[in-house]
């Protein structure tokens, strides 16, 4: 898939891995529609090849409005829609049952609201954005060449999809579901020349890891990551997105991006 003069929708594109992806796509000459609650930083926002849509990823109507706005923008710019990169997501931590050791309070089950929130953002949000964007993507003229490719869907899972830690039941459920969806989606969309791939990052440098104490950071680096023994960099995630977009034979796969790391059973 060519990147230059093509439009990509990036959810969660105002910060973290999503923002790194937006910047990488812009360097490649792409047009980027950013869907997020807050606007991206000025260096990305002021580009004439960026359009921002304030979007709550749990609101199906808001997603549809942003997709329709993005599609209209492609008509103005002449840069056809070429894919969706689903970076919007939340990290959730909650134990299945919390027990007061003093016995003063009864055991408290996992919050159903927390469970629903994780699913609504990480799983249903990704599904809704993808299905609504496909209305337009399957109508795009295919690229010239033997493959006749129309576009690419990229989803973001996590190492927790495979080895979730205590307190990650809801989070792991959402990320595991995205990994499980990848192959059937690729098979479903093959008739339209649309590829699907999922990235499963390990531990990446972020505001969340910055907030961890030194002991926790050291444990994650030394016990969970093989080489290079450090947290992943957002630019390395963006590099992987670019590779997926540009390599036509990447399809139906969940790609681990982890420095050969595996999350330990507990920190």
Outline:
InterPro entries: KR_dom (IPR057326), NAD(P)-bd_dom_sf (IPR036291), Sc_DH/Rdtase_CS (IPR020904), SDR_fam (IPR002347). It contains nine helices and nine strands.
What are the main properties of this structure?
single chain; 267 residues; alpha/beta; Rossmann fold; seven-stranded parallel β-sheet; 9 helices; 42% helix
Question: Could you walk me through the main structural features you see in this protein, from its secondary elements to its overall organization?
Answer:
This protein has one domain (7-203, 233-255): NAD(P)-binding Rossmann-like Domain (Rossmann fold, 3-Layer(aba) Sandwich), CATH 3.40.50. The chain starts with 6 loop residues before the first strand and ends in a 10-residue tail after the last strand. 42% of the residues are buried. Strand 2 (31-36), helix 2 and strand 3 (50-54) form a beta-alpha-beta unit. It has helices at 16-27, 42-45, 60-77, 112-137, 160-163, 169-189, 207-210, 214-224, 234-246; strands spanning 7-11, 31-36, 50-54, 81-86, 97-98, 108-109, 151-156, 194-201, 253-257. The model has no long low-confidence stretch (mean pLDDT 95). It is built from 9 helices and 9 strands.
């Amino acid at each position: 898939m060519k990147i230059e003069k093509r439009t990509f929708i990036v959810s969660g594109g105002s910060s973290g891995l999503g923002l790194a992806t937006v910047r990488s796509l812009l360097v490649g000459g792409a047009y980027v529609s950013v869907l997020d609650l807050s606007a991206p930083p000025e260096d990305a926002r002021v580009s004439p090849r960026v359009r921002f849509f304030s979007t709550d990823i749990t609101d199906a109507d808001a997603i549809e409005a942003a997709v329709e706005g993005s599609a209209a923008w492609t008509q103005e710019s002449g840069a056809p829609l070429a894919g969706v990169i689903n970076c919007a997501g939340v990290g959730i931590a909650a134990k299945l049952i919390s027990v007061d050791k003093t016995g003063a309070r009864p055991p408290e089950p996992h919050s159903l609201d927390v469970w629903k929130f994780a699913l609504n953002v990480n799983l249903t949000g990704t599904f809704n954005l993808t299905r609504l964007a496909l209305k337009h993507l399957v109508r795009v003229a295919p690229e010239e060449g033997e493959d006749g490719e129309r576009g690419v869907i990229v989803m973001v899972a996590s190492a927790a999809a495979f080895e979730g830690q205590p307190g990650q039941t809801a989070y792991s459920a959402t990320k595991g579901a995205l990994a499980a969806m990848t192959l059937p989606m690729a098979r479903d969309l093959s008739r339209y020349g649309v590829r699907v791939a999922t990235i499963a990052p390990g531990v990446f440098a972020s505001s969340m890891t910055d907030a961890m104490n030194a002991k926790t950071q050291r444990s994650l680096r030394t016990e969970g990551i093989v080489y290079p023994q450090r947290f992943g960099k957002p630019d390395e995630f963006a590099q992987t997105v670019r590779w997926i977009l540009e390599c036509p034979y990447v399809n139906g796969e969940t790609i681990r991006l982890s420095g050969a790391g595996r999350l330990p059973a507990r920190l």
